[in-house]
Each structure stands twice: as C-alpha cells, then as structure tokens.
Amino acid sequence: MSDTETVERHAFGAEVEQLLDLVVHALYSDREIFLRELVANAADATDRRRFEALTGKVPAAPADAKIRIAPDKAARTLTLTDSGIGMTKEELAANLGTIARSGTKAFSRALAADAPGGADKPSLIGQFGVGFYSAFMVADRVEVTSRHAGEDAAWTWASDGRGSYTLAPAEKEEAGTEIVLHLKSDADEFLEPIRLQHIVRKWADHVALPIVIASDGEETAGNEGTALWRKPKSEIDEEAYTAFYRHLSHNFDKPWATLHWRAEGATEFAALLFVPSMKPFMAVEDERRSRVRLHVRRMFISDEAELLPPWLRFVQGVVDTDDLPLNVSREMLQATPALARIRKAVTGRVMTELGNRAKNDAEGYAAFFEAFGPVLKEGIYEDVERRAEIAGLLRFKSSATEGWTSLADYIGRMKDGQSEIYYLVADDPEALARSPQLEGFKARGLEVLLLSDHVDAFWPDQLREFEGKALRSITQGNLDLSSFKPEGEPEAESGDVGAIVAALKEALGEEVADVRATDRLVDSAVVLASGEHGPDLQMQRLLRRAGRAFGPDRAVLEINPRHALIRALGERVAAGTSIAEEAQTLLDLARIQDGDIPRDPVAFARKVAAALAG
Fold first, then answer.
1. Inside any domain, residue 585
2. Binding residue per annotation — 445?
3. Annotation-wise, does 132 bind a ligand?
4. What pLDDT does 478 receive?
5. Which residues form the signal peptide (predicted)?
C-alpha cells in the first residue's frame, strides 16, 4: 500500500468554513492570541499526563518537560512541541476534526465525575475547543503530529482550514504533540524570537511549565514560571514582593500596602494586590479603569476585567482563579455570578485594608491620601452601596487644625448646637484658608473643611450627610450664624442698612440674584453666595467653564454693614448720591475674592489705575 493510500481525508464535523472564518476574523481581536491558545493547550496536555501517570494509566512525563517554540525563517514555519499526554488517531479526529469539541473539557467532566478530589487534580485552561483554530489567523496550513503516552503509533493531522483535514501515520520518538504552522505572508513578526518572547511574557509568564524559545541552536527561557501569588506568604520576603510589584506596575517605588490572600468557598481565587506609596508618572486620574490582571490557572486573560471599581484604580496586582467561566474568545468575560463575587470580595478586602491603615498608621495614611485621595473620593459619587464606608476614609484640610482630619474627627470638635458639617470648595488650596467666606466662621470658632480637589464640587451633594450631620457648603444659601456668638462682639452697624441694600439692588439690577446684609463677614466688605437650592459657587464656575451653565449666571451679593466702606456708601445713599459705579466695583471685588474674574476685566483695571493715579 502506498503512502498516499494511507492518508485519510475527512470533512470537518461542522460548518467549518463559516466557523473558521468567525475564529479568524471575529472571535479574536489580536492575532498574537493564537500563541497563548496553543501554549495553554500544551500546558493542559502536560498536566493531564502528569495526573494520569499518578494513577499508572500512562508513563510519567520527562523530568525536563517543557513547551518548545521554534521559529524557522527559511521554511517560514513556527513549531510548538510538548511532552504532554498526546492524542491517538481517534482523538485527533474527535478533538481537531470537530469544531468546538474540546478534549480538555471532556476530560474535566470525566475528572469531576470519577477522579478523587484533592490537590493532585490538574489545572486545565481550555474549555471550548476553539482556541486551536486561532492558529489559522496566522497560518495557511497547520500540521499536528501526536503520539499518545503509552502507545507506539503516531499520527499527523493536517489542514488548510477550509473544508477538510487529513490523517496519516507518522513517526515520533517521544510521546507528546508537535504543531507546525506554515505562516502566512503577512505574519513575519511571528518568526522573530524577540516578538515571540514578548508574547509569552505577556500572556503566559507565570505558567508553571517552562516555555523556551529555540533560535540559532540555543534555547532562551520564555517565561518566569513562578506564580508568586500562589505561594504561601511565609515563603515570600519583602524584596520578592517589591520586585514583582515593580515588574507588574512599571513603577519604581515600594508598595505602601501588600495584600496577599487566598479565598476559599463558593468561589476560590488567589490575589496579590499592591497599593503604591507614590503617584505613578502617568496620573491615575487620566485612566478611568482598574487594571488589576485576571489570570485563570496562572494564564493571563485580561487586565480589563474591572476587578476593582474605577475609584480604586490605583491598586495594582493579580487575581487568579480556577473557577471563573470565560466566553469562547476569553477576551470578553461573561457577567457571571462568580465574577461578581470575586469583584465584591476583592473590593471589600482592599477597603478593609485601607480602613485598618487609616486607624493604625495615620502618618502613612496621610501620605497615601495625598497621592490618591482625589480618586478615592470618586467612589462617593459612583458607589451608592459603599458611600458611607468611603466617606469614613476621606481626609481633609481644615480651618481649625493642621494636617489632615476626618469627618468623624470634625464631628467630635463641633460646637454645641451645631448640626451641620461646614465646607468650602475652591480651585486654589492656598487661597482657601484666606477666603473671606471663612471670616464669620473663624470669629465664632466654627470649623470649616477646605476642599480643593477636582472632584470636590460633585461628591458632597451625593453624600449629603455623615453620621447624622448634614454637609453644608458655606457659599450656598443664607447661612444663619446668629446662634453662635463671636468671640469679640463686633461694632454695631450704623445707618440705614435697608437703604444701601436697596440702592445696590437698583444699581446692579439683573447682574445679581439678590443683595443682602450678612453677619458672616469680619474684615471684608462683601462676599458672594449662591441661592438656597441651586449649585454652590464652585459648581457654578465649573459648569460655566464647561459651557453647561443653566439659567442666569447670577450670585447673591452679601455686604458687611459694619465695614467702613459699606458705612461710607451708606452715608452717600443717605445724602442722595448715586453709588452705581461703586456698586459695580463692589461686585467685581467680590468675584475676585472668590477666585473668579471681573465681568469686565479691562474696565476694572482702568478703575484701579485711575484710583491709584488719584
């Protein structure tokens, strides 16, 4: 019988042309994924052989078992070799001749049904039986030569991925599988050893089985092979943790916090997470997504699984599970209850760690909050369920204390009869402490929290209250401080306050929402405030800058009846003199004090110049 007569041609066991077209053009978005899939299959095959060797079903795998990747530029082939369980002729036809038929999945089912439990069970990566066909993204012909462990016969499966495949007897000295990819003309990059090593490092760096890249007669290690997160903590020192953190994050600092644990129960996973000690060069504010890496049985799957919410995106690390179902491409994760449980558990553990450190390491936590507080504050706006918990972790500058303070500490210092937590928001943290908005509060010994982060205009309205105390912006509404007596009784106001208020209203007209006297000023003549129910002044400024202001852009002008300037204007009003020009100047002064600009900067500059010339 001739060789051609021993070659068997078979049709694929499904609508192969349509399915392979789906794999090649739609299932995977990145061509390099093919190498991850083939490496995963080789690792699974080796695990299967090791496990079945324990039961005496097959000979043991070689002590130096590895996955070998060999590019050949002259032949334009890429060859992957393993010493795994191998396949019989029937298994080649069943597993590779039927799309979406997975030998790994069938073995997993059999193992779950028949094999005893325990740590000796292998960790298997493949599930859906389509990963192998990703090879056709880069190859126009694929040959698989395999010899099942414990058998002498070897067979070669070959196909161009169109409508059929062939099976032919082959010679193979050792058990295992060899895959030869005849690369397409546009796949030259996969003949470069450096490129192959980069792909292995990215997707399979922590697969336990050694992976080597063979080139020019030498073999170069392709993967690290040590999944640090799967080791007991007792076997890992600080230096190893730091080295892994730097490798993972590309940062140069030491982690401020290291969280390493293994979760058991309905969903099992291992996690190794790091909280940096300093801001990275690339600001975390710019990237609105967590990049914690998801691994399944050591194999990297994605860093876009959103294992932590965006407001914890400064956390770096790895979560590795044996239980998580994946969709057929492994690039888009299914919204499964298991994934939801992992997310909840990981978020809860990070929050617990931050809470403990906030309580036991005030200095270290202050440095952490200086770097990542603005990101953490986003959780108040975004996460209803954890809003109160996040609020307890926030820290603030204050008009009454040095350094950082918490909302709970603020409440502990509140004056008798005080029912609200006062805060002031502005762009400039240095200007906040000098703001005229604070004068009346300081005079009465009332503490005000000073907020200057970019998110501070948004989250207080979402939190609303903390431990039963309402949050109140001191620029919003007509604050009544009359129940709190100033430390030094101010000089009584004189003149007809109502008359000057009326004169200012008439002069300013539609430029202000209202004019009123206030008792919350000491040294300044005027200050701005917002309406009772609308956004406060900082939010109004942000909306105006973003072109999203609604309604007339008008604030309330509050005057200090005890100030010498207001008294002088009152005398002019009483004498029947117009104060129209002075009213405009007062409004511009109030705007400047509040970090804004005059309505007409040029006109204001001319007034100042004229006054100085004198």
1. yes
2. no
3. yes
4. 81
5. none
